[in-house]
From TrEMBL:
Gene Ontology CC: one annotated term: tRNA (m1A) methyltransferase complex
Keywords linked to the UniProt accession: Methyltransferase, S-adenosyl-L-methionine, Transferase, tRNA processing
Domain tRNA (adenine(58)-N(1))-methyltransferase catalytic subunit TRM61 C-terminal: 72-229
Binding site for S-adenosyl-L-methionine: 106-109, 124, 169
Entry superkingdom: Archaea
Protein name: tRNA (Adenine57-N1/adenine58-N1)-methyltransferase
GO terms for biological process, alphabetical: tRNA methylation
UniProt xrefs under Pfam families: GCD14
Example GO molecular function: tRNA (adenine(58)-N1)-methyltransferase activity
Statement: the UniProt record of this protein carries the keyword tRNA processing: yes
Length: 250
């Protein structure tokens, strides 16, 4: 591993895996299974192991976006992976795309998008959220994602930059739709996440007024299965519905 690189430490305890994020900083990492000297991680390749002072063995892994979703510090409820997949697939996001995002939150969606796209610029109005998101993005090791503190409407009103995809996850998203068109390249996608049907409807109608085409609003439901020797059935207390996604093309 490299200096300042983020590492996923995984260990097994009572037939269950425990996972932790830490950085190769030279400082000690503390958890209930003992102290790990992160300086020793410099000599370990991904897939290797390290032992705490209590004799607990950890596997050393390079974290991926799903690990950041589970383990990064949150400032609110992030967009779920099932919805992230819909955004990436329906908007056709690829390695040449520049993306404008609003509603950074914890930075989870920005991490997923930054793992795929060329560049992501994300706006968040709350400074405390911006600080936390920047820390999470630093942990993710993404240099192509920039988090800015500001109002996306003010930014889009200027119309001074153009993007392949714009993703909105903000309270007044319908009011922002009218300005998104002037910030998109021809053929680009606007994606709006709405927690309620009424908001999704308002977004859809505003997109029609703004001249977007190929509009589509969808809901992605996910059901996890619980597998045991006794039988297999839907897992209890799992999130199925989260929100609605509206896609519109310029």
């Amino acid at each position: 591993m490299k200096e300042n690189e983020t590492v996923l430490l995984r260990t097994r305890h009572k037939d269950k895996f425990r996972e932790y994020l830490t950085t190769v900083s030279g400082k000690q990492f503390h958890c209930e299974f003992g102290i790990v000297e992160t300086a020793d991680l410099l000599d370990i390749k991904p897939g290797g192991t390290i032992v705490s002072h209590m004799g607990q063995q950890f596997s050393v892994i390079r974290p991926r976006a799903p690990d950041m979703f589970r383990l990064a510090k949150r400032t609110g409820a992030p967009i779920m992976p099932k919805d992230v997949g819909q955004i990436i697939s329906h908007a056709g996001i690829n390695s040449s795309d520049r993306i404008l995002e609003a509603g950074t939150g914890s930075g989870v969606l920005a991490i997923y998008l930054g793992s795929v796209a060329k560049e992501v610029i994300s706006y968040e109005i709350r400074e405390d959220f911006v600080k936390n998101a920047r820390a999470n993005l630093s942990m993710a090791g993404l240099s192509n994602v920039e988090v800015r503190c500001g109002d996306i409407v003010d930014v889009m009103k200027q119309g001074s930059d153009f993007f392949d995809v714009i993703v909105l996850d903000i309270k007044d998203s319908a009011e922002s739709v009218r300005y998104a068109c002037s910030n998109l390249l021809a053929g680009g996608f606007l994606v709006v996440y709405s927690p309620f049907i009424e908001q999704a409807k308002a977004v859809y109608l505003e997109a029609v007024k703004a001249g977007f085409y190929s509009l589509n609003t969808l809901e992605c439901l996910e059901r996890e299965l619980s597998v045991s020797e006794r039988g297999t059935r839907p897992a209890p207390s799992r999130v199925g519905h989260t929100g609605y996604l509206t896609f519109a093309r310029k």
